[in-house]
Amino acid sequence: RYGFGGAQRDPARALGGLIRGFIRALFVLYTLLASPFGSYVEPLIIMAAVPFGFIGAVFSHLFMGIDFGMLSMFGLVGLSGVVVNDSLVLLDFVNAEHQSGKPMDEAILSAAKIRFRPILLTTLTTFLGVFPMIIERSVQAQFLVPMAVSLGFGVLFATVVIMVLVPALTMLQHDALGRFRVRKQRREAIRQAKPEVA
What's the N-to-C CA distance of the chain in angstroms? Predict the structure, then answer.
């Protein structure tokens, strides 16, 4: 058998710890979201855009010719927080509009129009905040460039996905829940219509 040691072993251990910590953080995040929403599905809708942010970060590394390393992973962790925040803002406003009496399709359209500007501003301020680091060419800054690329370009890609994915998944969930309720009512009506056997 063989194994890496020295300088190779430390990053491998750190990467394993980062992945385990990230999985725990996602579980805690899901729990914290499920409690106020009172739903097991809506937190998954909020977190569904996180993998797309990762895709944007990976492609940005390929486009810029930057190796994907440990600091890139740190950028993905920060990216997850921004993506979840944007999705949460959108879905919470959809629920508020729906609870005010609007049909779900109108609530989704209204939320997408009203919350588009805040979500876009959050994305642009995050990207512009790390952009000077992305274009910095000094030797001292090269250490942090992969993290800035992951966060900056990942949030740009994820925002586009959020504005399409979250409304679509919310509508699918609403339709599925409506069909489930109709079937339940039909079963209940059939059960009550059957004559009781003495």
Answer: 74
Q: What is the DSSP letter of 78?
A: H
Q: Can you tell me the distance from the alpha carbon of 177 to that of 62, in angstroms, rounded to the nearest whole number? A: 41
Enumerate residues 6+ apart whose C-beta is below 8 A from 89: 115, 118, 119, 122
Contacts with 123 (C-beta within 8 Å, 6 or more apart), sequence order: 82, 86, 155, 156, 159
Residues contacting 72, CB < 8 A, separation 6+: 57, 61, 66, 146, 147, 149, 150
Cα 114 from Cα 46, distance rounded (Å): 18
What global pTM score does this model have? 0.79
CA angle 148, 154, 156 (to 5 degrees): 110
CA distance 12 to 150: 20
Q: Output Rg (C-alpha) for the chain, integer angstroms.
A: 22
CA 38 to each of CA 32, 35, 52, 97, 107: distance values in angstroms, whole numbers, following the listed order: 10, 5, 25, 17, 19
pLDDT tens profile 76-88: 888 988 899 889 9
- CA 58 to CA 72: how far, in whole Å? 9
Q: CA-CA distance, 38 to 91, in Å (whole number)?
A: 13
- pLDDT, tens only, 87-96: 998 999 999 9
Comparing C-alpha atoms, which of 38, 34, 76, 30 is closest to residue 57?
76
